Inverse folding.
């Protein structure tokens, strides 16, 4: 009986000790909980995020930005819990990704809009296009539609009425110069410009490649449907919308200071949308 009592006392002490250690966490748990890890495209997303690191630090948070060069891995990392959030995409792309992959990622805050542009390759204007010239466009559904609408707005092709931002190559009803629409991975189009007459490029990849307004043939209009639709957003797993980390991140990025950073850094190619 004495042994049983002694064992019970020892067990109780062990449970109490473990509880204290768990609560204290030795400092390591608290430190990890105060780190916000965000997957992002290098330009402009990671640059915009890095501009808020000091503001987050002032509120006790450490920002860790993980850069990716494609449009798939940031969502994979978010779904898997390797990062807390991502910032690289617009809502139409997010919706498409969720539908195709069975994921439940949600947008929690608007940040900016990037004007898609047509950039000089072998030709320096739409008027200079010759019969059979090649124009490169992104090969993902949402951005290809956007590129086709830009070409249509500049008279290169004509699309079926009403197709809007769901347009595909099959919706081209008039192509007077028999332009070959070349579908390419978005990130590769800047490097492919020497092989194309013109390339239609997302702003983040154009900026990352050092392309400027002097290299552009045309941009989407600021009042276009695309400008209202393709706002880049902060994305998290469903259920994390109201977490401390999510709220701190959105609060830090939707500020006048970030608006000024965007306007002063990107010369109009990127516009704040909050």
């Amino acid at each position: 009986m004495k042994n049983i009592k002694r064992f019970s006392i020892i067990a109780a002490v062990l449970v109490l000790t473990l509880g204290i250690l768990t609560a204290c966490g030795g400092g390591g748990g608290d430190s990890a909980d105060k780190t916000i890890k965000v997957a992002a495209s290098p330009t402009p997303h990671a640059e915009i995020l890095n501009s808020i690191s000091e503001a987050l630090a002032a509120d006790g948070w450490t920002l860790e930005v993980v850069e990716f060069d494609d449009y798939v891995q940031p969502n994979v990392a978010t779904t898997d819990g390797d990062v807390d959030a991502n910032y690289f995409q617009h809502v139409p792309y997010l919706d498409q990704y969720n539908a195709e992959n069975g994921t439940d990622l949600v947008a929690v805050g608007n940040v900016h809009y990037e004007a898609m542009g047509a950039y000089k390759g072998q030709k320096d204007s739409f008027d200079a296009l010759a019969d059979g010239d090649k124009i490169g466009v992104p090969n993902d559904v949402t951005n290809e539609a956007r590129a086709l609408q830009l070409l249509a707005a500049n008279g290169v092709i004509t699309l079926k009425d009403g197709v809007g931002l769901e347009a595909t190559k099959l919706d081209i009803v008039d192509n007077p110069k028999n332009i070959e629409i070349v579908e390419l991975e978005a990130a590769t189009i800047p490097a492919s410009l020497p092989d194309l007459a013109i390339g239609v490029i997302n702003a983040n990849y154009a900026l990352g490649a050092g392309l400027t307004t002097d290299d552009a043939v045309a941009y989407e209009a600021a009042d276009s449907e695309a400008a209202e639709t393709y706002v880049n957003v902060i994305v998290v797993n469903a259920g994390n919308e109201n977490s401390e980390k999510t709220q701190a991140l959105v609060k830090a990025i939707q500020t006048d200071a970030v608006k000024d950073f965007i306007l002063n850094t990107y010369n109009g190619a990127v516009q704040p949308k909050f």
Remarks:
- The two ends are 71 Å apart (CA to CA).
- The chain has two domains: 34-112+230-272, 117-219.
- The longest strand covers residues 105-114.
